[in-house]
## 1
Amino acid sequence: MQMLYDSDSFVVVHILPEAFEPPGGDAQQPQVPQLPRHGFEIVDKRSGKEVYLDGSWAEMFQQQILAWQRDTPTQEEVEAALDRYTGLAQNPVIVH
């Protein structure tokens, strides 16, 4: 997990899964590679809700991040782009 962005309004975290299954009960079996999937969690601090992007949504968001790396947007531009995802945020953030 890698924090990509943190402001008064949003947090964006890149979640990278393990590329291998954990070892099973048989020590003789090698670890089996899995198809690596990654995702992004966007937390809207204003509403207390989050959205998890994976699959094609994550790929589109990755393209947005690459564009930000090339163009160095202002904080207002980043926040405006993140604000477009808030309509997808349905899950309340629960702190354990």
## 2
Amino acid sequence: MAKRPQPDLPDRPVLLDGGMGRELQFRGVALSESIWSAQGLIDAPDVVRQIHRDYITVGADIITTNTYGLIRDDLAKAGIADRFAELNQKACALAREACDKAARPVLVAGSLPPLRGSFRPDLVGPKAESLTCYREQARLLAPHVDLLLCETMSSAVEARAAAEAACETGRPVWVSWTLHEDESGRLRSGETIAQAVFMLADLPVSGFLTNCASPASITRAIPKLSAATNQRVGGYANTFHPIPADWRLDGQKTSDGLLPLRNDLGPDAYAVHAARWLDAGASVIGGCCGTRPAHIKKLRDLITARYPDFRGS
């Protein structure tokens, strides 16, 4: 069996941070339809750093680099493809600066995103092309992060390309899939969790998660993840209404663009779902798009209540 590098984590459920893009918007930062939250690295780096700090303050064990929007093709649309390396390094520096101010150890996860649009398994490119792109970004992030997080993967093939590139760096690697809107616990591609995990069986991936899906979808998926692997499993949900199958951030359809948020997933309601994930075997919980520091604070309270010796240290 392949060796699986592990980040230095406590022996209890680990708390991820919450969303970055919507949080930037909540704080008045205008985002791009091409590079999304990465616009904050250019226009408001101090706000990006402060968001990282706020998630740390409320208890996050791991914060994620603001690299989800750093995709060469999208940067080219914005006329700044030549800033790819610079902006990846800047995102890492902002995360590290936030951790340096923390009173306790906090890890940094380097985000490796979908390359041709979120939630779109039909747009995933050839593996060779994806592997080249992921290798470039993984190598930029690896020297500055504690683990690499291949997130919002919509298909087994997409995740395989990202994970393969990430594992080549020698850093610990976690993979997280986004799920179908039918709340079946399947991937957006229709593949099962078991099929997705099997696709990575020969790689030293040490965490298997689901993210940017409804809390109910993640509730369905956690038992399937627990049954498919003996590594860390978990989830971090969005607070969106159902996402159309043909959605594009920069599309022209009325259903494209900014996704509406639900009004029934405040911190307390979100934590009820997260408690179900823990009950089902999750050892990693957090928040994705639309979750805020108040959501992560509530998750910290949930973990502390179950592990009183922890007390937020």
